Hints:
With 653 residues, the protein is of the alpha/beta class.
Amino acid sequence: MAPRPSLWMRAAAAVLSGVMIGLSPAPTGWWPLHWFAFVPLLWALDPRTPRTNLALAVLQGTAATAVIFRWIADTIILFSNIPAVGAYAITVLFAVVYGTQYPAAFAAVWPLRRRLGRAWVLALPAWVVLVEWVAARVLLFPYQTGVTTFRVPWLIQLASVTGVWGLSFVMVLVSTVLGEAVYRRREGRPPPWGWIVLSAGVVAAVVGFGAWRHPRVAAQVEAAPVLRVQQIQTAKDMLHRLSHPAHEAFDFWLEQTRQIPPGSVDLVVWPEGAVPYSLNESTNANALLWELVRRGDFDLVVGSGTREREPDAAMGEQGRVRMFNSVYVFARDAIAPAEEQAPSDTWAHLQASGCDLDAAHLVTPFEVAAVRAAAGEGAVGPCVEALAAREQALRQGVTVSAPFEQTMARTPGLWSAFRAQSVRFPDGFREDHFRVRGGLGTWRLVDPACVDDDCAFVLVVCRGDSGCVVHRDAPHYDKMVPLPFGEYLPLAEVLPWLRDLIRGPGNFRAGTEPVVFDAGGVRFATPICYEGILSYVCNAFEAPDLLVNVTNDAWFGDTAASELHGMLVAIRATELGIPVFRSAYAGVSFVAEADGTLHDVAPLYTEVNRPVRLHLARLDTVYARHGDWFVVASGILLALALALSALRPRTEA
């Protein structure tokens, strides 16, 4: 055995390994480094110093994580009450904790080499795959070795078969073969030519498969139907948004969308948090969004929030508020124009029904007009009394900036336009409230059986004398994996004092259903924010044609976070064989086609409002059909190698 290097040299090599890993992903993007990044650490490890080996692996993991996630300190400083010193301390602590996947993987180098001999060269990549798979479920921001190749189509095609895990295996295999060459040189033995040839063959096979597959699937993508999508993002950061009224941010997205020529696109996507209101409660926001859809003849996806109440004896009738990070879909085919022609026998019908305006239908403007006309001619009785009672009730519930009578005088067409047919709602509804904004009248009609604030409702939207449109509640998806320390504070329910100590995290709950929307004949899922980097979440959606990933990375300021996040999302397109449309609040937005090609990348903090085209190709991929089979295979390979080693005498490496 050759003399061991000094501890300082070994530590420097471990740090170098970590820095090489940290510079490999976006935005630096020096991905070739990652194929050799583990070699300096392998050189530093020594079979005679297992504890030091563990410390060196911790040092490597801390360095790698600190470089990759250096933006965390800036985010903490910007959006919390923690001072800069504390922010950097938290970042270092995060790097130590998050970087544990590296010592968990590489502390096994010499135990595996002693136990398996030369087979450790295959066993360690399999072990790294298992560690990365577990890390994807327990760490805050899972990150896989193989994802750094996301911009190289002839390499990432392997992900269509194995998922990102196969890429990680091959990249670590290159380093372990070179590490074995280092160890044999120290031991005075010839290089492992067999392993070198094998690893070169594996890399050549991966490149060859990609070079063969990519032009073929690219041709399928090019021949697929085109979906026209409007890409919108703002140049404003979150400090600007938080320092201005919420409606200003909402108005930005409204005005950008109103500029879209009607019929020019199929889908418009607003990012996470574009609507600063809970859409299940905001009648006016719903009305304005439906109006956009009606006018523009497109489907609309918006990031918003949902507020629900759950019974809580300790809080009385108010109950406990549950908040969700949500995506709502306003589909144009859900718009049902209300009938605008008054029946000729309205007055006779009312008299025959005893003027019970709630009996089998909603009060309509034509009934109102008929009763008013009769009252003007001196008629009295149940019909006139019923109308007076109804209008009095509406006055009590009205929410406008001027008295009810003045509002009606300014926009008399609202009454004449309100026509909701009873046949459309046979169970009946009651008026919840009425509002006017900019001449747009809205009624939120609630099922009379509704007993809490989490009720489906019907929205009637009227503009002037042009008629009314009736909508059911827009469907929505609630984020299933809220972001710890961002959207909720872990243990805050158990230790309430944590909220006083750490201010900034939200209080969002987790959704439970992987909703797939169907709009315009396109089935799409909407993983929110960092759900897009979680393969097990994206795999939970049932056979979508498209992933629409909405996010708000503006919370991380002008840092590397958005590009890093986008890199981790883009790989889903190749894995699942479907396109990914990423809509980021202030960037980075892009289209990733089903073959892995990226285009229409909108840089960070650049205002964008443009139509882009994506191809609705569905490529058959092994990964989409069988999921994480390669992880299972890696586990079997490792278990089999360990089992066989127990049945035979230990061999030399």
